Amino acid sequence: MRTVRSIRSLASAVIALAVIVAGAATITLASAPPAAALDNGLALTPQMGFNNWNATHCGPDFNEAMVKSIADLFVSSGLKDAGYQYVNLDDCWAEQNRDANGDYVPNATRFPHGIKALADYVHSKGLKFGLYTSAGTLTCAQTMPGSLGHEQQDAKLWASWGVDYLKYDNCNNQGVDAQKRYTAMRDALKATGRPILFSMCEWGQNKPWLWAKDVGNSWRTTGDISDNYASMLSIVHQNMALAQYAGPGHWNDPDMLEVGNGGMNDTEYRSHFSLWSVMAAPLLIGSDLRKASAETMQILTNKDVIAVDQDRLGVQGAPISTDGGRDVFVKPLANGDRAVALFNESDSPQRITTSAKAAGLPAAPGYAVRDLWAHTTRETAGTIAATVPAHGTVMVRVSASRRWAMYPPAVDTGIDVPVAYPGALPIIQPGTATSMTTAVTNSGRLPAIKVRSDLTGPDGWTVQATTRRTTPVLASNRTLATTWTVQPPADAKPGTYDLTAKAAYLGASAESTVQVLVLKLTAPPSGTSYLSDVSWLRASNGWGPVEKDMSNGETAAGDGHPITINGTVYKKGLGVHAPSSVEYYTAKKCTSVSADVGVDDEKTANGSVTFELWADGTKVADSGLLTTADAAKHLTADVGGAAFVRLIVTDGGNGNDSDHADWADAQITCS
Ligand code: GLA
For ligand 1, atom 11, which residue shows the shortest CA distance? Predict the structure, then answer.
């Protein structure tokens, strides 16, 4: 599959060609005498504000009324007080053509009173105003001109309108060197004499962190964010490796916020906001605040978290460990405190621990730990621990405060739900008793007094402690472990249910919730069956659904062809697209799985994958790398004793372009 970005570069190439054909290929950069540095005194802490792009793109909602309402809301809803300052317009604010003087013309439909009037309105609220264009001949949406070759004239116009901020994109750049293009605009902005924050947006393509410290106040480090967890996570992974390059006046920009746009849940949006803040990222709200929920506003105005982003020391926090999807980010703060973000990348709750020492704090008898989302403070002897929900972040501020002893000890609780292998679904069958343990741990220096551990399930469930669940005193660094029997009613409907552990003790309490899946599992029939005739437990694919008895056509169900590997056609099998995982419940009753595996003939180039068979947590077969050119390989494995079997296809390490993978004649034998 082609990516959106490659379609867009194709479009830029076509336009570039058109420009050359039209004989307008020579672009002279309108550069003022070179200034040595940016030196505009702006963004000493990361910029905060609003930009309409993520909420509206170039849709009709992007207009004067919207922008004015956002400015009003900044004042009335406490966002201005929380530090948000810039109200910025993205692509599509101008008409397609410049006027007779060669100046930008505000889009008459969206901004009937012009841009200057809007900037004046924003200024009248005590806020600042920003615009967008591209360091190319057209912007990315291609509905308005870019500023390449017009830098000085455009900067002058914007300054006359009262523009305080420029986001400068990278589309349609005609192949002109990025350093030249961005430096030309820096110099043009500087020559206006008006302080204009310069936000570079070349998506990290030319490694701006290596050269743009004196060019821009911030530079995008990645491609565009989209409103989903996978996109946010991949941006975190790219941006977190660049911490050393950020500092006051020059920040890494992992793109604007999606908080409130609806594609992630609030736990994920809290992670998004926490991670942007611990990474000292610009905080540009990207949702339509006129429709924001109370929860969205609570996230965006969390002053404890914003204080971490805006800390004047200006250090980008970086991970000190990233193990098993458990990331620990640390950001040193101006007063000597450390902000610590415990981020659980994975799909199930995990306990994440670190220590004041690992976070870089000096040795002390105790530390104060402030939870920046719960807004509570506890004392710790050194350990910082929490059970973090799937995709969640616990963010704390740790200080070697002499007053640590005035706070209750930091106690956390967690539930260990037994699973067949790490990452397996936490399944309980209706009417079946499952044994689980809770662990209440005191990380405080002081003892926790009158400790009681609770576990609660949904109405109608039986939840009983089978070991001790209270203790008069839980000493420092001790754990109260309790075993429980948990049983859903026999007629429990299939679905996801919450189990909540609570630890109550003198002066405070702690809580954590896990989700379990109630499901009636059925093992495959005895004898040998085609896997395409057996129901799977879950299946995931890089493109389109997993297909039974046909190849994967990438989009709708049933859009494949007869399974064919190097000319051999198979009637039975599974057609998947890397990365893929198909999981079966085998109830420890099955003995072997076999298949002829290979890349389907419907792709003639680029496909390269590996096929793996997993019995619970153990890989029991691996095809090695197979490409479009290879004949089918017979894969067979012993899966005896496994409760779950997974058929996994990886992208072979080179992305998943054309990775149509067939499990031809896939069969399972069970007793
Ligand atoms: C690029 C930028 C986005 C946005 C759009 C507008 O994709 O990276 O942030 O400005 O262009 O077209």
Answer: 140
Give me the sign of the Cα torsion angle 183, 209, 169, 172. positive
Tell whether ligand 1 has an atom less than 6 A from the beta carbon of residue 127.
Answer: no
3-state secondary structure of 55: helix
Is pLDDT at 19 greater than 90 in this prediction?
A: no
The interaxial angle of helices 151-161 and 114-124, nearest 10 deg, is 50
CA distance 444 to 467: 24
Distance in angstroms (rounded) separating the CA atoms of residues 223 and 169: 11
- State the pLDDT at residue 347: 87
Strand locations in 228-307 (E):
251-253, 283-285
| DSSP letter for each residue of 577-607 | ESSEEEEEE-TT-EEEEEEEEEE-TT--SS-
DSSP β-bridge partners for residue 415: 438
Instruction: Set out the domains of the chain in order of their start, with CATH numbers.
Output: 5-29+47-311 (3.20.20.70), 411-520 (2.60.40.10), 527-670 (2.60.120.1060)
Please indicate whether residue 53, judged by its CB atom, sits closer than 6 Å to ligand 1.
yes
Angle made by CA atoms 192, 194, 200, in degrees to the nearest 5: 85
Residue 461 pLDDT more than 60?
yes
Residue 616 zone, left/alpha/beta (φ > 0; ψ -120 to 50; rest): left
- Token digits for 228? 């989903």
491 assigned to active site: no
Q: What residue's CA is closest to ligand 1, atom 5? A: 140
| Pocket lining: 140 vs ligand 1, CB cutoff 6 Å | yes
Distance of CA 206 to the CA centre of its chain: 23
634-653 b/e (C-beta count within 10 Å ≥ 16 → b): ebebebeebbbbbbbbbbbe
Residue type, 224: D
Average pLDDT score over residue span 259-273: 98
Residue bearing tokens 């057609």: 575
Q: Classify each residue of 380-413 as buried b or exposed e, where b means 16 or more C-beta atoms within 10 Å of its C-beta.
A: bbbbbbbbbbbbbbbbbbbbbbeebeebbbbbbb
Cα(190)–Cα(325) distance, integer angstroms: 44
**Nearest protein Cα to ligand 1, atom 9:** 224
pLDDT tens sequence across 230-246 = 999 999 999 999 999 99
**DSSP 3-state of 369:** strand
Q: What does the pLDDT look like over 523-575, one tens digit per residue?
A: 999 999 999 999 999 999 999 999 999 999 999 999 999 999 999 999 999 99
Distance CA(578)–CA(234), nearest Å, equals 18
Judge if pTM exceeds 0.85: yes
In the residue annotation, 169 being an active-site residue is answered as yes
Tell whether ligand 1 has an atom less than 6 A from the beta carbon of residue 11.
Answer: no
